[in-house]
Amino acid sequence: MHAVILGAGLMGRLLAHALAQQGHRVEVHEARGPDATGSAARVAAAMLAPLAESAITELPVVRMGQYGLGRWPELLATLAQPVFFQQNGTLVVWHRQDAAEARRLGQQLQQNQQQLPTLAAPLPLDAAGMGAQEAGLAGRFSQGLLLPGEGQLDNRQLLQALLDSLQAQGVALHWHSHRTPADFEPGRAGQPDWLIDCRGLGARPQWAGLRGVRGEVLRLHAPDVTLTRPVRLVHPRYPIYIAPKPDHVFVVGATEIETDDLSPASVRSTLELLSAAYSVHPGFGEARLLEVGVQARPTLPDNLPALRQLGPRTLQVNGLYRHGFLIAPALLDATLALLHGEPAQLAQGWGLPIHTD
Question: Of 24, 53, 102, 103, whose CB neighbour count within 10 A is largest?
Answer without folding.
Answer: 53
